[in-house]
Structure formats: C-alpha cells, structure tokens
Amino acid sequence: MEAYNKYSKGAVDEAAFNYMLLGELGYEIAQTNFAHIVEENAKTQQLFHTEVEAFKWSLLSWQRSANQQYPFARVKLGDFNYYGLGTNTDYSAALNHYKIAADNHHSAQAMFNLGYMHEQGLGLEKDLHLAKRYYDLAAETSVDAVVPVALAMLKLRAIFFMDYMKDNFAWHSALIVFLDSTLGPHWDFFVMSVLLAIIPYLLLQYWQNRRQIAAAAQIPVDHVPVPPAAE
Question: Membrane-crossing residues (predicted)?
C-alpha cells in the first residue's frame, strides 16, 4: 500500500523501488507492478542509467512473475522477445511463451498472437489454416477478442483470395510485385485500413440519402411553393 500510495501521488521511481524490493522477496504482485511501472516509464525513469537497462530489469521481473504462473506475465515475455525489448528479437522464444500462455492459461491474447505469427510466418513456417484456428480459439475464449478477430479474419480471407488468384492467374504475381515496390512489404495493412475507412463513409452516405428521400416524400402538398399568377 505504501508503494501504491507513492505511485498514486506521482512518485513513480520511489514506488518502483519499493515494488522492486518486495519483488526480490518473492511477492508476485510486486514483481508485476515493478515490471509494469518500469516498462511504461522506461524513457523517463531515474532508477537505471539507460532505457535499455530499464527494459532488461522489467523483463527479469516479468520472468519472475511468469514463473509464479501469472498468465499476463507470460504473454509479456512473449511481447518482449517479439519486439526485442531488453533482449534480442527472438520470434521462436516469443512463440514459445505465447504457446505456454495459450495452452496452460487459456489466454485469448496469446492465442491471437499465435494466429498472427502463423499468418505472417514469424518464427515458424507460414500456415494460414493454423492462423485461422488460433483466431477462432481467441474469439471463443474471450468476448473482448471478437472484434479484433473479426478484423483479422477479414484480412485472412483477403490473403486466401490473393493466394487463389496467384495460383490461377498469372497477372496476380505482377500485381503483388507492384504493390510491394510502391507500398512496401506490409501493403496489405494499408489496403485494409483504406477499406475500413471507406466502408463507414459509404454507409453514412447511404443513410443520408435515405433520410433525404424520406424527407422529400413527406412534404405536404400545401407546403409546395406555387408560382405567382401572371398579372
């Protein structure tokens, strides 16, 4: 509570130091709080000399918390290895942590991350069918994952369609090369963002037109302007 009160008052470094001491004694909640505070304030904290050193300590504390079977800490270990925070980027290690969180703790976030890594072929061979399986598991495990999974499945269907076009139409390969050269290797995210922006706009225009038509159909006859009679 003393550490929490310091954090609430803005004394972030003092709170982190107290949590660090308690974490050394084995308190899992203190390990988690210390890791979170240091990670979120890696650029501004004054406990460690550099941002890299702060991430290393945060990673160590997440590891200790994960060893005490805290599911979120296990997912964070995967994130740190995925993004290379406090360690080198290691997709295989990230994949292993996500799999532990998914299999042992039924973490929807870990399942979603596994789906993405199978979709992109990060740390393992690309497998769109396994990606779909993990996305479905994430949606079944948590209602909070339904919307992200729906968006991911929309993108996955587009990839399936492009693979079909690639296998059946020669011009598809030339199109992919053109998109890669102009928009970069992650052009599919750009296309999906554009589509997601266009769809609400089209729906808005549709409903506006419907309201205008309905309003025009309900104008009483006596309200229609009549031209003045010729003198």
Answer: 142-165, 185-204
Structural domain spans, the chain: 1-68, 91-168, 175-214
The answer to whether the beta carbons of residues 150 and 140 sit under 8 Å apart is: no
Assigned token pair, 71: 């599911």
CA atoms within a 13 Å half-sphere pointing along the CA-CB vector of 183: 14
- Taking each helix axis as running N to C, give the angle between helix 187-217 and helix 171-183, from 0 to 180 degrees, rounded to the nearest 10: 90
Alpha-carbon distance of 169 to 165, in angstroms, equals: 5
Q: Residues with Cβ < 8 Å from 129, sequence gap 6 or more? A: none
- Note the pLDDT tens digit of each residue in 167-226: 665 445 566 666 666 666 666 666 666 766 777 777 777 777 777 776 766 655 444 454
DSSP 8-state code for residue 48: S
- pLDDT in the model for residue 224: 45
For residue 68 the two structure tokens come to 């005490």
Residue 148, classed as helix, strand or coil, is helix
Quote the pTM value.
0.72
CA atoms within 13 A on the CB side of 65: 28
Cβ–Cβ < 8 Å for 17, 47: yes
